[in-house]
Amino acid sequence: MKLAENGFLNEFKLAQANLQANLLVPTAQGGGAHFRYRGPGAGTAPLPIALAYFSGKVDPSVAANYSSTNFTSATFVNALALNNAAPGAFATNLYNNATFRTNAANAGLPVNLFLTNPGLLSTII
Protein backbone atom coordinates (compact mmCIF):
# COMPACT_ATOMS: atom_id res chain seq x y z
CA MET A 1 0.00 0.00 0.00
CA LYS A 2 1.33 3.43 -0.95
CA LEU A 3 1.35 5.87 1.96
CA ALA A 4 4.17 8.38 1.47
CA GLU A 5 4.16 8.87 -2.32
CA ASN A 6 0.53 9.96 -2.48
CA GLY A 7 0.65 12.52 0.36
CA PHE A 8 -1.37 10.35 2.73
CA LEU A 9 1.38 10.05 5.36
CA ASN A 10 1.66 13.83 5.59
CA GLU A 11 -2.11 14.10 5.93
CA PHE A 12 -2.08 11.38 8.60
CA LYS A 13 0.35 13.52 10.62
CA LEU A 14 -1.94 16.54 10.19
CA ALA A 15 -4.88 14.41 11.41
CA GLN A 16 -2.83 13.47 14.48
CA ALA A 17 -2.15 17.17 15.13
CA ASN A 18 -5.86 17.97 14.63
CA LEU A 19 -6.80 15.34 17.19
CA GLN A 20 -4.34 16.74 19.73
CA ALA A 21 -5.54 20.32 19.11
CA ASN A 22 -9.21 19.32 19.38
CA LEU A 23 -8.62 17.46 22.64
CA LEU A 24 -7.51 20.76 24.20
CA VAL A 25 -10.77 22.52 23.33
CA PRO A 26 -13.97 22.03 25.37
CA THR A 27 -16.66 20.02 23.60
CA ALA A 28 -19.06 22.96 23.86
CA GLN A 29 -16.62 24.95 21.73
CA GLY A 30 -16.23 22.27 19.04
CA GLY A 31 -13.41 20.29 20.59
CA GLY A 32 -13.23 16.73 21.78
CA ALA A 33 -11.95 13.37 20.60
CA HIS A 34 -12.11 14.00 16.86
CA PHE A 35 -9.75 15.07 14.09
CA ARG A 36 -12.06 17.45 12.19
CA TYR A 37 -10.75 20.63 10.64
CA ARG A 38 -12.45 23.43 12.60
CA GLY A 39 -11.59 26.34 10.32
CA PRO A 40 -8.92 29.01 10.04
CA GLY A 41 -7.42 30.09 13.33
CA ALA A 42 -8.62 26.99 15.18
CA GLY A 43 -5.22 25.28 15.19
CA THR A 44 -6.33 22.48 12.87
CA ALA A 45 -5.52 21.69 9.24
CA PRO A 46 -7.70 20.65 6.29
CA LEU A 47 -7.65 16.92 5.45
CA PRO A 48 -8.57 16.55 1.76
CA ILE A 49 -7.99 12.79 1.46
CA ALA A 50 -9.97 11.88 4.59
CA LEU A 51 -12.73 14.30 3.62
CA ALA A 52 -12.98 12.79 0.14
CA TYR A 53 -13.18 9.22 1.46
CA PHE A 54 -15.62 10.02 4.27
CA SER A 55 -18.04 12.24 2.36
CA GLY A 56 -17.06 12.67 -1.28
CA LYS A 57 -16.64 16.39 -0.73
CA VAL A 58 -13.95 18.26 -2.62
CA ASP A 59 -13.45 21.53 -0.72
CA PRO A 60 -11.33 20.72 2.33
CA SER A 61 -11.09 24.38 3.39
CA VAL A 62 -14.76 24.54 4.46
CA ALA A 63 -15.06 23.47 8.09
CA ALA A 64 -18.77 22.65 7.66
CA ASN A 65 -17.79 19.84 5.25
CA TYR A 66 -16.29 17.87 8.15
CA SER A 67 -19.64 16.69 9.53
CA SER A 68 -19.06 12.95 8.96
CA THR A 69 -19.21 10.88 12.13
CA ASN A 70 -16.14 9.03 10.84
CA PHE A 71 -14.02 11.91 12.18
CA THR A 72 -15.05 10.71 15.66
CA SER A 73 -14.99 6.97 14.95
CA ALA A 74 -12.76 4.94 17.26
CA THR A 75 -11.60 3.01 14.18
CA PHE A 76 -9.87 6.12 12.91
CA VAL A 77 -9.24 8.09 16.11
CA ASN A 78 -7.42 5.17 17.75
CA ALA A 79 -5.12 4.82 14.72
CA LEU A 80 -3.98 8.42 15.34
CA ALA A 81 -2.62 7.73 18.84
CA LEU A 82 0.74 9.46 19.18
CA ASN A 83 2.41 6.55 20.98
CA ASN A 84 0.87 3.82 18.82
CA ALA A 85 0.20 5.44 15.45
CA ALA A 86 -1.11 3.14 12.75
CA PRO A 87 -1.14 4.94 9.37
CA GLY A 88 -1.32 1.62 7.51
CA ALA A 89 -4.41 0.55 9.44
CA PHE A 90 -6.00 3.96 8.89
CA ALA A 91 -5.38 3.77 5.12
CA THR A 92 -6.54 0.16 4.94
CA ASN A 93 -9.80 1.06 6.70
CA LEU A 94 -10.35 3.82 4.15
CA TYR A 95 -9.59 1.64 1.15
CA ASN A 96 -11.39 -1.52 2.29
CA ASN A 97 -14.74 0.26 2.50
CA ALA A 98 -16.59 0.27 -0.84
CA THR A 99 -18.64 3.34 0.12
CA PHE A 100 -15.47 5.25 0.99
CA ARG A 101 -13.88 4.25 -2.35
CA THR A 102 -16.97 5.49 -4.20
CA ASN A 103 -16.91 8.75 -2.24
CA ALA A 104 -13.23 9.25 -3.08
CA ALA A 105 -13.83 8.59 -6.77
CA ASN A 106 -16.76 11.05 -6.75
CA ALA A 107 -14.45 13.64 -5.19
CA GLY A 108 -11.97 13.09 -8.01
CA LEU A 109 -9.32 11.02 -6.25
CA PRO A 110 -7.65 8.39 -8.42
CA VAL A 111 -8.64 4.76 -7.88
CA ASN A 112 -4.95 3.90 -7.49
CA LEU A 113 -4.29 6.37 -4.68
CA PHE A 114 -3.34 3.58 -2.28
CA LEU A 115 -2.74 0.61 -4.59
CA THR A 116 -0.69 0.99 -7.77
CA ASN A 117 -2.78 -1.48 -9.80
CA PRO A 118 -6.03 -2.08 -7.91
CA GLY A 119 -7.63 -3.70 -10.96
CA LEU A 120 -5.11 -6.58 -10.77
CA LEU A 121 -6.41 -7.80 -7.41
CA SER A 122 -8.00 -11.22 -7.71
CA THR A 123 -10.87 -9.94 -5.60
CA ILE A 124 -11.90 -6.41 -4.82
CA ILE A 125 -11.26 -5.67 -1.20
Structure description:
It is built from 5 helices and no strands. The chain is mainly α and 125 residues long. It has one domain. The longest helix has 16 residues, at 8-23. The chain is globular. The two termini are 13 Å apart. The model has no long low-confidence stretch (mean pLDDT 92).
Please specify the SSE layout and strand pairing:
Layout: H1 8-23, H2 48-55, H3 74-77, H4 87-95, H5 98-106
Provide a short characterization of the protein structure:
37% of the residues lie in helices and 0% in strands.
Number of helices: 5
Approximate shape? globular
- How far do the termini sit from each other? 13 Å
What is the rounded Rg? Answer: 14 Å
Order of helices and strands: HHHHH
Beta fraction: under 5%
Low-confidence residue ranges: none
Secondary-structure class? mainly alpha
